[in-house]
C-alpha cells in the first residue's frame, strides 16, 4: 500500500516515454484476456449508465461501450484521453472527461463503475476517499468491478492489498458477489446492498 497517491506527473511522463499506447492495451494478449474476463463477469447484459475510471487510450472503453447506454470514461493524462476520444469517436453515447481520482470524481450516479488497474496507484487516504465517492455515486443494485494485476513484481502486492482495503471500506454498502483470480490478475465484482 502506498502512503501517497502517485502524482499526475508520473503518468504524464510514462506516456511521454512510452509512446501512444505504453501499456500495449491494443496488442497485449494479457489485456485482451483480462477484458474478456471483465466483460464476462458483469452481472448484467446491459447497464444504463457506467463509469470507467482510468480509461487510458480507450481500448477497453470501446468494448465496454457495447454493454452501456451511457458511458463516462475518465482519464487524467491529456495525451491518453485524446487517443481514447479518437478511437471512440463513432460512439456518441460515450463521454470523456479529464479527471484525477478521487479529487475529480464526477458528480453523477452510475449503475456500473469499472476500476481496472488504478487502485495500486492510490495512497491510503485517497483509497478512503474513493470509498466515499462510491458510496455517493452507485445506484441501488449497482455494481463495482475491480481488476488488478497480481504478477510477481512489487506492484502486485500493492494491488491485492488495495483491493482488500477498498472492499473493507465499502462493506457497509457494497458486498462481494464474485471473485476470480489467476496467475495474472484478480477480478472482484461488488454489488450495492440495497438495504444500506
Automatic annotation (TrEMBL):
GO terms for biological process: methylation; oligosaccharide biosynthetic process. It comes from the Bacteria. The keyword Magnesium does not apply. Pfam families: NodS (PF05401). Gene3D superfamilies: Vaccinia Virus protein VP39. GO terms for molecular function: S-adenosylmethionine-dependent methyltransferase activity. Keywords: Methyltransferase, S-adenosyl-L-methionine, Transferase. PANTHER family: METHYLTRANSFERASE, UBIQUINONE BIOSYNTHESIS O-METHYLTRANSFERASE, MITOCHONDRIAL. This is Nodulation S family protein.
